[in-house]
Amino acid sequence: MKHWNEPPHARSLSKMTEIAKSTKIREGVKSLTLLRVPLQNVIPCELHMRMHIGDVLLRNLVLDAQDKDNEFKFNKIKSSHIQDLGQLLWDCGVSFEMWHDRDPITGKQAEKLEYSQLSGSDYKILYQKSC
């Protein structure tokens, strides 16, 4: 079995640069690297990787709850998936807030739902409760 750091899975700085410049599928590379540090000299930080994964999962949960509420609203059925998600996080002991900003020009409530980012200790609580 080949490991991630052995061919054909291993990536080099030049390969990542080539992928980033490509207009086709990016294969997980969003942009050119800021610093040209050889990958064998990089040590990933587990805490920040877990927090980033948690941010992506939380964003997906919020978007999914919003989609469900919008779908129910379209079908004229009352729902509160987004409030239920917030309450679930509060029940886990995590401080989590959601709000709609106001449009500075019109003063009306903006469509986009904003929410607070969780801290490392909040993610630790959620990871422990989910296992």
Task: Give an overview of the whole structure.
The chain starts with 12 loop residues before the first helix and ends with a helix. It is mainly alpha-helical. It has 2 domains: 42 residues, no CATH class; 85 residues, no CATH class. The chain contains 4 helices and 2 strands; from the N terminus they run H-H-H-E-E-H. Strands 1-2 form a two-stranded antiparallel ribbon. The model has no long low-confidence stretch (mean pLDDT 84).
- Portion of residues within helices: 40-55%
Largest sheet: 2 strands, antiparallel
How far is the N terminus from the C terminus? 29 Å
Instruction: Choose one word for the global shape.
Output: extended
Which percent band covers the strand fraction?
5-15%
Briefly note the structural class of the backbone. Answer: mainly alpha
Radius of gyration: 20 Å
Order of helices and strands: HHHEEH
